[in-house]
Amino acid sequence: MTENKPGRAHLKIVISTAAIIAALVLTVQYISLARQNQELKTDLAEINHIRYGLLNVDEWTAQLSTILSIKILELKLTPENRVKVAQNLENILNRMIDEIELMMIERTSGQLSGMKRWFAGFVINLDQLRDSVPSYSNQLLSELNKPENIKVLQQFLSEKLNEFTASTYNLDQMDPLHMVMEKHSCFDKEECRELIREKIGVKNRVINFRVIMVLLLVSAVYLINLVSRQKINLFQATLLILASFCLLLGGITTPMIDLDARIDQLMIQIMGEEIIFRNNIIFFQSKSITDVVRILFEERTLPMIFVGVLLFTFSIIFPSLKLISSLLYTYDIGNLRENMLIRFFVIKSGKWSMADVMVIAIYMSYIGFNGIIGSQLDHLTQTTKPVEILTTNGTQLLSGFYLFLLFCISSLILSETITRKT
């Protein structure tokens, strides 16, 4: 039995070493893929942004033009509107007769005015014209109702609509949208939207596989080396430290949360037709801890720099020092095991582990207070027809959060293991 113990320990080291190498490779691949996916999500959010949809004049013009075109094609006289159209035509004809009468009075004034009025009245009988207005109106309506005349009228209205559409354009800055479309070699928003969604879907599957594998490999390394009551050697302790390092590296360099507040659908009824706007993003953020630290420092204001220092200290410096101190404590280089700072990070830092949780709280608070929370979106849904609004808050936790969470747990186990089992 005692002869098998060295062989068993050797087997544990071989398996753990292979698992750690695989975990490191997968972590590096995951970081690269997560960054690419973060960029794709940002591009998709730019395309779906509300300023290119609901708040865009071009979108309104296109949809309204379509509705008006349909109404022009449906143009015809019905028993319901024939009476109204006839009344309007009669009013127009009566006004024309009144204007003719005024013009005749002006031209027949002056010398020989009586002779002129007699001749004009002989030629044009205005009272007879007024009596004939209803008859003329009906004749005009009959002419308008002929298919060839309706086509001419539809063509005329369509030309006027095209002129109106051409003279109405958006004044907002469209360069960011055009840059995204050019980047992905797209010709229109819908094509670009579908292309990016497809890329994100593929990358999500690859990312999820790598994250699951990293979590399984790291968990396997801990289980393999800690299941027995025997002490672990220096090399095994190093493997445990490297396993925690994989989790920390993936946790702080990849996005932890996607904040997505959007109007899923807004529908308005105009002239019996529906105007619909879908997937209008109001706010989107996908940031890692390192991204937030960089943004905070770039603000160059004292409150933001202070939060950035806290975030950098407790999310990057503090965990890194815990791992480095664990390594130095394990090998006892230069009798560093007795160093107060090293002993603090290895033995006593467990009492300070809630600092890691505080980091997540600060991180999520920063993102949350700069975004739009779900309760604000609820106010938009409190509308009645003909306007219908469906809003969503698409916020979700990402792999970076779970990697960092597991690192916090593994660092506690690591401290206990190094102090008791090495």
Structural write-up:
The chain has 422 residues and is of the alpha+beta class. The protein is 72% helix and 9% strand. The chain contains 15 helices and four strands. The protein has helices at 4-47, 57-73, 79-107, 113-123, 126-144, 147-167, 175-183, 189-226, 234-253, 289-299, 302-331, 340-348, 354-369, 374-378, 399-421; strands spanning 257-270, 273-287, 387-393, 396-397. Strands 1, 2, 3 and 4 form a four-stranded antiparallel sheet that branches. α8 (189-226) packs parallel to α15 (399-421) and α11 (302-331) packs across α12 (340-348). The protein is rod-shaped, with a radius of gyration of 38 Å.
Which terms would index this structure?
422 residues; alpha+beta; four-stranded antiparallel β-sheet; 15 helices; 72% helix
Principal-axes shape call: rod-shaped
The helix tally amounts to 15
Helix fraction bin: over 70%
The strand count comes to 4
Largest sheet: 4 strands, antiparallel
Strand composition percent: 5-15%
Give the distance, in angstroms, between the N- and C-terminal Cα atoms.
22 Å
Please outline what is shown here:
This protein is an alpha+beta fold.
List the helices and strands and how they pair.
Blueprint: H1 4-47, H2 57-73, H3 79-107, H4 113-123, H5 126-144, H6 147-167, H7 175-183, H8 189-226, H9 234-253, E1 257-270, E2 273-287, H10 289-299, H11 302-331, H12 340-348, H13 354-369, H14 374-378, E3 387-393, E4 396-397, H15 399-421
Antiparallel strand pairs: 1-2, 1-3, 1-4
Helix pairs in contact: 1-8, 1-9, 2-6, 3-5, 8-9, 8-15, 9-11, 9-15, 10-11, 11-12, 11-13, 11-15
